[in-house]
Amino acid sequence: MNLNISYNWLKEYVVLKESPQDFAKKISLSGPSVDRTQDMGSGLGGVVVGKILEITKHPNADKLFIGKIDIGNSTIQLVFGTKAEVKVGQQLPVAVAPTVLPTGQEINKTIFRGVNSEGMLCLDSELSLSSEDKITFFDNKVKTGTPLAKAMNLDDAIFDMEVTSNRPDAMCIIGMAREASAIMNAKFLYQAPKPNLKISGEEIKLSVNVKEPKICPRYQAIVLTDVKAGPSPLWMQQRLLASGLRPINNLVDITNYILLEYGQPMHVFDYHKLKDNQIIVRLAKRGEKILALDGKEYELNDDNLIIADSASPVAVGGVMGGELSAASANTKTIVFECANFDPVSVRKTARRLNLHSESSNLYEKGLSPINVEVALLRAIELAQKLAGAKVASKIIDVNNYKYKAKEINLEPQNVTRLLGVEIKAARIKEILGSLGFKVGGSGKKLKVSVPWWRDRDMEGQHDLIEEIARVYGYHNLPSKLMAGAIPITYEKNLFAVQDKIKDILVGLGLTEIYAYSFVSEKIITNSSLNLKDHLQIANPLSADFEYLRTSLVPGILQIISENAGFFPEIKIFELSQVFTKADKNLGEEIPNLTVALSGGDNTEIFLNLKGIMEALFKKLNLSDFTVQLMPAKEFWSDKNIIIKARGKVIGSLGLISNKTLNSFGIKKPVAVLDLDLNNVIAIAKLSPSFEPIAKFPEIDLDLSMEMGEEELYETIKNKILKVDPLIKKVSFLSVYQGEKITANKKALAVRITYSHPDKTLELTEAQAIHNQVVEKLKKEYNIKVR
Length: 786
What we know:
Blueprint: E1 2-6, H1 7-10, H2 20-30, E2 33-39, E3 47-57, E4 64-70, E5 75-81, E6 91-96, E7 99-100, E8 106-107, E9 110-112, E10 115-117, E11 119-121, H3 148-151, E12 157-162, H4 173-184, E13 207-210, E14 218-225, H5 234-242, H6 250-262, E15 267-270, E16 278-283, E17 289-291, E18 297-299, E19 305-308, E20 313-316, E21 320-321, E22 334-340, H7 343-353, H8 358-363, H9 371-387, E23 390-391, E24 396-399, E25 407-410, H10 412-419, H11 425-434, E26 438-442, E27 445-449, H12 461-472, H13 494-507, E28 511-512, E29 518-519, H14 521-526, E30 547-548, H15 553-563, E31 570-581, E32 587-598, H16 602-619, E33 626-631, E34 639-645, E35 648-655, H17 658-664, E36 670-676, H18 677-683, E37 699-708, H19 713-721, E38 727-736, E39 745-754, H20 763-781, E40 784-785
Parallel strand pairs: 13-16, 28-31
Antiparallel strand pairs: 1-12, 2-12, 3-4, 3-6, 4-5, 6-11, 7-8, 9-10, 14-22, 14-23, 14-24, 15-22, 16-19, 17-18, 19-20, 20-21, 25-27, 26-27, 29-30, 31-32, 32-36, 33-34, 34-35, 35-36, 37-39, 37-40, 38-39
């Protein structure tokens, strides 16, 4: 939340000698950040207080006048219109040519209908003081020629400050002054208000009935009489305008001033507009309506908290007051309301009505009920000073809130451990004390009592350490590079591996799906799986959910069948549990991964899926695996590939048989990769192993050979790698079957990389090993070199 904070106003509550720029830098390092600093007097350098000495009619224009203006050291002449409505003897802002106003308007010496004009009388809107086209007049105490910025106390800086939402206590002048006092190590000047509470004359009766104490834990009200409604003094108007609030009259302005000064919303009622002199805090009745201060009528619901008199709502609790009970220029007797409301209730009401205000924004963040008391006293004090108010009743205080200071144990050694710098216990006490905390104890444990304005955001020791760190100065904490040995591997964790696998597959263009863990007898038989291998549910919801699945493949095929008509290509995967019979009655959950592609011909989808498998294994740093072509079982086509690693089967890769596809009504080929995640995790690595770059040149020799079409590239590759340690890599180049190749044969071309770790390998040495490779393959696979 961003606030506009006046530096001069702030300095009324804390001793600050820094320039606005230095203050902004220092407080931003340890507290609320200053986004922007605005000089209030900027653009007013050529505007002074002038006194009208003479007014005459313009000889050549009916609607223009000529004025002689005393600007202190000289007298100037200027031409103005009837809109100004000024009189001889009045003192007002005068722009002396040449100058440029804050609005960007240039004022130069000019001639109007033959008469010289050396400046301009200025409206507040032309000086960016307000949006109203009115003139600010000054009494004779202000010397003519005084710069306007000085006369209006505009030699001030406005800070646009960002305050985090967990710090409503700092969203006001006093809260910010308390922050500045701690961060700048400056004296805090706040003194509690002490208005005269003696009832003048006969007491005026007012009854307050809080029917929802949980939503309104504290409600205070007081009647003041003989008030004189009118404009607020200039200093108050300026502060309201600088903070983004429009001055209305001294009574309403006081409540807005308290909002800015104490961070406590208030409201003022016209006493005589409250039927039967009653205030009732209750939930609205469904369909009740209220005309709010924004001029709009709102229909209320039975979960909206309202302030009502004996007849109807007069305010929406914590959000906005009502127009019909508002104080006006004719008001003589008022009721100041100062209350605390539940933040959740205020937030729900504001959102439902789409009615947001400065008050609701503060209440939603959680205010302390204790703030109610001091804020009301300050309002009474200002009303007595600015409106001549007299106290006509005692302060009515309906308090359902029991305050007990929160206490937190703090261990200084934890401060050192977390911040990386030793801060002595005495300095810790000093820092926390400057923020209003009371610190007792000594040695290894301190007992910290949290002040009432911080009891919402202080939960434990970690919060106190954060307060110590920011006041001590984050910029004063030591900056050190990480030290210690770099971890070789990460700790293996099923969820971490599963999360990484999902990220990899999504990155490869696949979509994750979720199928039911329960399957029907029909799906099991359609997948050529054995019904006896499945656990049967004792009380299934229906026949479709009668068995626990032993494979993810049937669910994948069912989803492909249901979606094939909507998508030309399907690329999906599921990572979930399958269930096997560990004994006769209890099942064992095993994490499985199934990837399926559909939408191309057999060769295309098989090769694409093989590429996905290799990319997945590479990302998992799983390189030590072998493949073997095996006769098909279950739902697989003629043959499928069994994937092994370290002597264990980790999965299968292949095409789904036409029989199975037909039983699911699938018309396009489907390729499936099915992996046992437990076995994959056992050999996978979340972090790669370091391999040094070869110091000496490598030699690449290509080998093209003819062999049986059933032989797999992976099998040949693994066989080549085992021939000699100097063989570092085998790369696939091409495979060919056609007219120039014998029937039932294929031509496979590979590139073999040779390298010696300690010297430059000679070509003759590499060729000798290459010959051994050829002989080995001829012997075991009856290859023919092409």
